[in-house]
Amino acid sequence: MASSVDNIPEGSVLVVGLGRFGTALASTLDKLDRDILILENNPALVEKFSHRFHVIQADATNIEALAQAGAAEFSSAVVSVGSNIESSVLITANLSEFNIPQIWAKAISRSHGRILRKIGAHHVVFPEYDAGSRVAHMVFGKMLDYIDMEDGFSVVKMKPPRSIQGFTLDEVKLQERYGVRVIGIKSPNRPFEYAHSGSHIAPDDILIVSGDGTELENFARAR
């Protein structure tokens, strides 16, 4: 049974399950200095990972256990249980009852994914296409997609930080300030355009940005 959790930091992520996917996800979130709480029903896995993560032994198919763990206080939750479809569906349905803004769920088939979406998952992850480390970069909402290339170089699709909204790329000088480069901009109801110095950045634009992975993370966190 879960222990109660108090004083959950804003922006924390709830991870359910410590299989291979959940472990990869938790490891990357930990490297990014994100606050995470993991619920795992297997006592052996709880013991194995308790020295690395904040892990609570709990049966997340039980909505009372989720409530006691403070599920309603989290802004994001990831259901990494996938191979047991019944458990995956029950956990996702339970989490949706807490009105968590972003629920991510692992699926093992397209039909499984469709069910998860219908019962409340905002995002469905298919492990053959999405590694846990990639999802970790996106669960906070600013990065909408993340592609690791090589040698630390990455390309991301993201929302513009508030500090650069309303300015042109020439005015914000991103390469000098953050070491990243905007490749293109997609504005609502307008075709994609390759970025240039005079490109104007609006609050509802989507940016395609390239650069070092760490510098991209710093840019995404900018206010």
Helix and strand arrangement:
Elements: E1 13-16, H1 20-31, E2 36-40, H2 43-49, E3 55-57, H3 63-68, E4 76-79, H4 85-96, E5 102-106, H5 110-118, E6 123-125, H6 132-136, E7 143-148, E8 153-158, H7 169-172, H8 174-177, E9 181-186, E10 193-194, E11 206-212, H9 213-221
Parallel strand pairs: 1-2, 1-4, 2-3, 4-5, 5-6
Antiparallel strand pairs: 7-8, 8-11, 9-10, 9-11
The main β sheet shows up as: 6 strands, parallel
- Binned strand content: 15-25%
State the helicity in percent bands. Answer: 25-40%
Number of strands: 11
What's the CATH topology name of the largest domain?
A: Rossmann fold
Give the low-confidence spans: none
Separate helix tally: 9
Question: CATH top level of the largest domain?
Answer: Alpha Beta
CATH superfamily of the largest domain: NAD(P)-binding Rossmann-like Domain
- List the strand order in the largest sheet: 3-2-1-4-5-6
Count the domains: 2
Q: What is the correct CATH architecture of the largest domain? A: 3-Layer(aba) Sandwich
Write the H/E string, N to C.
EHEHEHEHEHEHEEHHEEEH
Q: Output the radius of gyration.
A: 19 Å
Shape designation: elongated
Secondary structural class:
alpha/beta
Distance between the termini: 39 Å
Essential attributes:
Alpha-Beta Plaits, 6-stranded parallel beta sheet, 2 domains, Rossmann fold, 23% strand, 223 residues, alpha/beta, elongated
Task: Give your account of this protein's structure.
This protein is α/β, with parallel strands linked by helices. It folds into 2 domains: 124 residues, 3-Layer(aba) Sandwich (Rossmann fold), CATH 3.40.50; 79 residues, Regulator of K+ conductance, C-terminal domain (Alpha-Beta Plaits, 2-Layer Sandwich), CATH 3.30.70.1450. 30% of the residues lie in helices and 23% in strands. The strands form 2 sheets. A 6-stranded parallel sheet has the order 3-2-1-4-5-6, with helices on both faces. The protein is elongated and about 55 Å long. The termini are far apart. The model has no long low-confidence stretch (mean pLDDT 89).
